[in-house]
Amino acid sequence: MSFIIFFLSYPIFGDAEDTLNPSLNKLIKASDEIKGPDQAFKLEAIFNDLNQIELNWLIDEQCFLYKEKLEFYVSPEQIYSIETNNLAVRQDDEYFGNVEVYYKELKYLLIGNFNKETVIDLVYQGCNAQGFCYPPIKKQIILNKSKKYISLNK
């Protein structure tokens, strides 16, 4: 007795449009275009002459940062203030609902009694226009002894 076995093959994800999830379709098509977090959100930290830390993000044109996802932790613990002149844009987000976001550029000014012992941990998060949301991005700012420059660590 002999058997003949037929294999039928159907592509699971042959075309991105074949998935049932429109968000997934968009991501599959755009996976080659997704930039790394350091390219999507270029961060520069400067210690200025007024004993303030300037944080400047250049945000890729296809990306945005969530205002509510920006977090600052200063140690040793001290009183400090945060200022920005950037206006956030309110939008309806498929992941977080009604949120405020920043496009193109973001500048924050940290004002405090910073010294060579100061370490600042930053957490921020954003997404791109294709629907890809980056996991929270963590950076650490360390002032050097002369306070002339800042080390920015992952």
Give a nutshell description of this structure:
The protein is mainly beta and 154 residues long.
Question: What does this entry look like structurally?
Answer:
This protein has 154 residues and is mostly beta strands. The protein has a single domain, classed as Immunoglobulin-like (Sandwich), CATH 2.60.40. The protein is 8% helix and 44% strand. It contains 2 helices and 12 strands. The chain has helices spanning 22-30, 37-40, and strands spanning 41-47, 52-59, 63-66, 71-75, 80-83, 89-93, 97-102, 105-112, 119-124, 126-128, 137-143, 150-153. The strands form 3 sheets. A 4-stranded antiparallel beta sheet has the order 1-2-8-5. The chain has a 4-stranded antiparallel beta sheet with strand order 6-7-3-10, with no helix packed on it. The chain has a 4-stranded antiparallel beta sheet with strand order 4-9-11-12, with no helix packed on it. The radius of gyration is 22 Å and the shape is elongated. The termini are far apart. Mean pLDDT is 80; it is low at 5-17.
